[in-house]
Amino acid sequence: MRGEFPYKNIGERLRKWRQQIHESVAEVSGAVEIDSEQLAKIEKGAVLPSEDILLLLISHLDVTEKDAAMILEQAGYVRTSADTPPGISNMDEQLIKQMLMIIPFDNRILYSDSVNISATPNGVVLDFLQITSNPQPATIGRIGMSLEQAGKMQILLAEILSKTSRPQRLLEQPENTHNQTEQPNQS
Fold first, then answer.
1. Which residues of 113-147 are buried (b: 16+ CB within 10 A; e: fewer)?
2. What's the burial of 182, exposed, middle or buried (CB within 10 Å: 0-12/13-18/19+)?
3. Domain chopping of the chain, boundaries
4. How would you classify residue 127: left for phi > 0, otherwise alpha for psi between -120 and 50, otherwise beta?
5. 8 A C-beta contact, residue 83 and residue 101
6. Pairing of strands 138-145, 114-120
7. Strands 138-145 and 123-130
8. What angle do CA 154, 158, 159 make, to 5 degrees?
């Protein structure tokens, strides 16, 4: 059975940490921008995540330094000074990894006055704006997603808005913008 799930120990730890923060596979995979099926395979121990993905998971799952060092070592991503790229000391590399793990999660809600939506064949970018005393609105948040995710979000948003008893607000296009802003029809 070990051959089928060679990274079972790593996967079980990641699943435990995900469950401790009460997030689903879909939520965590979205946060670290990997496919949910890929995260499910990682948690089963069938595949080993790349070092970058593992660092993102460690950061998002709020793993302690001690546990992070242990799982990085188990995954074979702990480098010796001989493996460190030229010009970067082992201490510098550890500091960089530590900084990646300390990125705080800000759960404040920012309210926007408008949104600019731009799309390419690769995905959609939403720029949430607030009107300020300056002539140009301030960007308060920027979210990128795949076209598939944007389609799912459109359906979900329509469902939620149809069930709410509050009147729908029009997303107004601020003046002096170049991107197309999507505005729902008022009925």
1. ebbbeeeeeeebbbbbbeeeeeeebeeeeeeebee
2. middle
3. 8-101, 108-187
4. beta
5. no
6. unpaired
7. antiparallel
8. 120
CA distances (Å), 68 to each of 8, 45, 77, 90, in order?
16, 17, 11, 17
Say whether domain 8-101 belongs to CATH 1.10.260.40.
Answer: yes
The structure tokens listed for 120 are 């390419």
The two tokens of residue 142 are: 């920027």
51 Cβ contact list (under 8 Å, min separation 6):
72, 75, 77
pLDDT of the residue at 9: 92
- Give the closest residue to 49 by CA, choosing from 66, 64, 28: 28
Using one digit for the tens of pLDDT, what is the confidence trace for 67-100?
A: 888 898 888 887 554 555 555 555 556 666 655 5
The number of residues in the chain equals 187
The SS3 assignment for 156 reads helix
Distance CA 33, CA 29 (A): 6
Q: Can you read off the two tokens belonging to residue 56?
A: 């993102």
Q: What pLDDT, in 10s, does the model give residues 103-123?
A: 555 667 778 888 989 888 888
